[in-house]
Amino acid sequence: MYINNYGTEPDIYYAEFPSPEQRNRYALQGGMAILLVTALLLVACAVS
Known about the structure:
Layout: H1 20-47
């Protein structure tokens, strides 16, 4: 009796470059993240 310890490997596919709409959304999310972190730092400095 033999045991197959090797799982099946998934097919390889290459990532596609993001569309202009996706790039705009990423830029917006990055800007919102920067604003959130900045606001948190300012609140932390004001409280301490």
